[in-house]
Amino acid sequence: MENVTRQNGGEVVVTDPLSNDHQRGKNGQNGSPDAAVGANGDLTDAGKQGITDVNVSRLARMPVEVEAIRYSGNHSHRGHCIIFNHRVFDRNTGLGERNGTDRDRDQVQQLFEQLGFQVKVCNNYTVASIKAEIQDLAFGTDHSDCDMLAVIFMSHGEQDILWGKDGHIKAEFLFESFQGDQCKTLAGKPKLFFIQACRGENLDAGVTLVRSRPSDETDSGYLSYKIPNTADYLICWSTVPVSGHYSWRNTTNGSWFIQSLVHVLNRDSSHDDLLSMMTSVNRHMIINFESNCPSQPHMHGKKQAASIVSTLMRKVFLLPKY
Asked: Best exposed site among 2, 24, 159, 262 by fewest CB in 10 Å?
C-alpha cells in the first residue's frame, strides 16, 4: 500500500516504489491594422501590418535547405542541455520537498550526455538564478556549431507557472528568449523542452477499453525563406493543460514522465525521430503507470497523459554523431 500526499502547487507524490508498475514572398501592403490585406490577399483576425523592406536585424543563417525533411545533425556539437532540478523550496513558498526528483535528474543527465549534449545541472535554483541561466543560454551563448538545444525543468507547477526555490515564474519565460528573432544562432534549429510539473489539481480516472470483437484484428532552389519566430519548438509537458492536472512522481523511482522518457529514448533514439518517440513515451506512460492507493479511494487507480506541443517543421534525429 502506498502513501499519497497532495501538495499545494506540487505533484502527486507516490511513496510506494512498486505502485508505478502495477506491481508489475510577398511583401504585404501597409494599411489599417484592423483591415490590412497582404499582396496575396491574406489577413489575420486582427488585420496585419505589411512589411515593406527587409530588416537586416531579422536575418539568420539557413541551417538546412528549405525542403529538407530532417534538421541538420552535421554541426560540430549536438548542443547544450540544461537541467533545472528542484527538490527543496523555501519555507515561505509552502511547497513540500520533491523526493524522487534527484533520481530523475541523474537519469536524464546520463541520457542526454549519451545523446551527445553538453549538459549542465542546476539544482534548487532561485527564480533570479533560473532567469540568469536562461538569458545567458539565449543571449550569451553561441549555438552556431550546435544542432539543437534541450531544456529540462523539474519542479512544482500550476496552470501557467513553474516554481523555483524561492518563488515562481511564468512558464513562457523558458521559451520566449529562444525565438528566432531573439536567439539567431538557434534560428531554424530544434528547441526541445521537457517539463515535469503539475498544471493543476485535477486527477484522471481514465476509461477502460475492451475488445468489441471476439478475435484479434491485424491489419532547394531558394536563396531565402521566412519562418515564424515560434517555429522549431517541441514542448513536452508531463501532463495535460485541460482543466489542470496533477503530475505523478514516485519517491524512489522518480516521476512517471521522466521514467518513460528515459526508457523510450534509450531504446529508440538510434533509429526513430524525436516526435515519434514522444508518442511512444506517452504510450509507455499511459499503459504502464497507474496509482495504487486503496486507502485513499479518491487517489486510487489514476492515470496520466503527457501533452506534446510541436511547431517543428522537420524531423529531429538523435543519431550518434561519430
From this structure: 24
pTM exceeds 0.85 for this model: no
Contacts 24+ apart (CB under 8 A), 266-273: 266/111, 266/114, 269/115, 269/318, 269/319, 270/319, 270/320, 273/70, 273/315, 273/316, 273/317
Predicted confidence (pLDDT) per residue in 16-42, tens digit: 433 333 333 333 334 433 334 455 556
Tell me the per-residue pLDDT of 221-269, one tens digit each, with 9 for 90 and over: 556 778 899 999 999 999 998 777 889 999 999 999 999 999 999 999 9
CA distances from 267 to 154, 205, 270, 314 (A): 22, 29, 8, 22
Confirm if 111 and 259 have CB atoms less than 8 A apart: no
Euclidean distance between CA atoms 232 and 192, whole angstroms: 9
pLDDT at residue 200, as a whole number:
84
For residues 21 and 289, is the Cβ–Cβ distance under 8 A?
A: yes
User: In which residue are the cell numbers 509537458 written?
Assistant: 237
Which residues are the active-site residues?
156, 198
